[in-house]
């Protein structure tokens, strides 16, 4: 990147979260990620530059030295911090302002520091040339937590039976965050059983919320930009996807078109999720099972009879879901067991505030961090060192629980012979694919009390709402066979 030749017209708005805004290059597979600040916060260029650089460098170091060793070299792209001309940044800010969702405009893009994080655009394949006529597509999945807590510190039995995501849906619906409750359950996706995974993905497509997005050539074609702006027309999505799965024009049409194309998409996603970076042959890899806690959630809508017969196949050892799940399970004491340990650290820091740097509460996230987290002892010896390690393990687990999986796909030309492990064969086409993991920022240490409070609110509201009234009977939207019909909602 030639920073002295930056032109704001070569960049476009890509998306944003609560803490950062992302723009993508119109030609190259690059994105720039800028920090955001409250609109009323006064700008101090010197302070902003120092804080922004430190914040962004921490993100890079955490991704590179902590998350990459846990999740795998091929899945994580940590990027680099770049310093850009302030005039370019300010012109870019003006350019993208009109494209931002209104609900996000309470914060403004950092225009004072000039620092940004430069990353590959993971909505596009990084390893091959793709045709202009059929641009790459990308499926972004935010899978959430894939296991039930098994800690003895859990005080409400319902947490051993119903997953956090399914319980949280009740509170989000009541608060007006979403208009409809999602039937997706993360434990179905993480089961490794293709039938349960297919069921989970169909539920994500039916009610995407912020857990599923589909991009075409970097542009969102399905999913929610925020809780008020959603693109969820499955018939329109089918028209986008047909050239990828059925290249011959007119090969598929009529009322079964949507179902057939969506099933092809789901099969491809499942294959990508179960393959590892070295092979696409999912059946030849040693499986990893959830050895502690139950493998299914009582709130899942997956057919109970099939669950009783056994439907937990286990995940291939090095597939992306297995890597994420293993990092998530670093949270082995649950927030209820962690909160007293957090208080132990806080009490110590209150007495010895200068120790915060030595204990690396806020970084630096160097290579030693990974070794400390990986080799953490299981028994509490009452020390501050033990408490700090468990807190840091929890923060890694929380990052893994909130990360996104990016599956990029592009038709494989007949004259190209890529590595076999980069290709998925569908019924009528060959697709080159890549799998990456995104959103790997360190979770704030100071956020632990909020997580403890939120956990109680979610559990208590779920118990109240399910005990106060029995849920009305819900029609079985999906048949037990692979040939399922999706229910379309108007939006």
UniProtKB/TrEMBL annotation:
One of its GO terms (cellular component) is cytoplasm. GO terms for biological process: inositol phosphate biosynthetic process. It is found in: Cytoplasm; Nucleus. Its main location: cytoplasm. Transmembrane segments: none annotated. It catalyses: 1D-myo-inositol 1,3,4,5,6-pentakisphosphate + ATP = 1D-myo-inositol hexakisphosphate + ADP + H(+). Its EC number is 2.7.1.158. It is an enzyme of class 2 (transferase). InterPro entries: Ins_P5_2-kin, IP5_2-K_N_lobe. It comes from the Eukaryota. It holds the Pfam family Ins_P5_2-kin. Phosphorylates Ins(1,3,4,5,6)P5 at position 2 to form Ins(1,2,3,4,5,6)P6 (InsP6 or phytate). This is Inositol-pentakisphosphate 2-kinase. The gene is ippk.
């Amino acid at each position: 990147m030639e920073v002295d030749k930056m032109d704001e017209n070569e960049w476009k708005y890509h998306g944003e979260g609560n803490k950062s805004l992302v723009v993508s290059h119109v030609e190259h597979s690059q994105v720039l990620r800028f920090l955001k600040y409250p609109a009323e916060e006064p700008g101090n260029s010197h302070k902003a530059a120092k804080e922004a650089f430190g914040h962004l460098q921490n993100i890079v170091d955490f991704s590179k030295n902590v998350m990459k060793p846990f999740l795998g070299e091929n899945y994580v792209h940590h990027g680099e911090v770049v310093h850009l001309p302030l005039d370019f940044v300010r012109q870019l800010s003006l350019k993208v302002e009109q494209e931002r969702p209104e609900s996000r405009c309470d914060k403004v893009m950092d225009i004072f520091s000039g620092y940004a994080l430069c990353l590959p655009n993971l909505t596009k394949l990084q390893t091959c040339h793709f045709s202009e006529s059929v641009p790459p597509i990308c499926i972004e999945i935010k899978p959430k937590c894939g296991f039930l807590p098994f800690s003895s510190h859990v005080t409400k039995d319902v947490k051993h039976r119903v997953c956090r995501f399914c319980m949280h849906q009740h509170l989000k619906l009541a608060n007006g965050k979403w208009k409809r409750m999602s039937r997706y359950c993360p434990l179905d996706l993480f089961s490794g059983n293709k039938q349960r995974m297919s069921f989970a993905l169909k539920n994500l497509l039916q009610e995407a919320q912020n857990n599923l997005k589909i991009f075409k050539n970097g542009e969102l074609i399905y999913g929610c930009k925020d809780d008020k702006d959603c693109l969820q027309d499955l018939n329109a999505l089918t028209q986008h996807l047909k050239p990828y799965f059925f290249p011959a024009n007119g090969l598929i049409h009529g009322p079964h078109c949507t179902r057939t194309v969506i099933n092809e998409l789901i099969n491809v996603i499942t294959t990508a999720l179960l393959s590892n970076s070295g092979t696409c042959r999912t059946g030849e890899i040693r499986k990893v099972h959830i050895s502690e806690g139950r493998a299914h959630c009582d709130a899942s809508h997956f057919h109970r009879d099939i669950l009783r017969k056994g439907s937990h196949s286990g995940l291939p050892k090095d597939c992306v879901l297995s890597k994420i799940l293993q990092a998530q399970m670093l949270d082995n004491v649950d927030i209820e067991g962690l909160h007293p340990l957090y208080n132990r650290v806080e009490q110590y820091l209150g007495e010895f505030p200068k120790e915060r740097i030595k204990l690396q509460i806020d970084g630096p996230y160097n290579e030693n961090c990974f070794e400390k987290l990986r080799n953490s002892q299981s028994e509490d010896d009452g020390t501050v060192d033990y408490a700090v390690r468990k807190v840091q393990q929890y923060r890694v687990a929380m990052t893994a629980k909130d990360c996104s999986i990016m599956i990029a796909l592009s038709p494989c030309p007949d004259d190209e012979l890529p590595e076999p492990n980069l290709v998925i064969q569908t019924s009528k086409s060959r697709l080159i694919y890549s799998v990456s993991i995104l959103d790997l920022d360190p979770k704030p240490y100071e956020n632990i009390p909020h997580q403890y409070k939120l956990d109680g609110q979610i559990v208590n509201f779920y118990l109240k709402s399910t005990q106060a009234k029995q849920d009305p009977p819900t029609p079985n939207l999906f048949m037990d066979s692979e040939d399922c019909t999706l229910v379309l909602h108007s939006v």
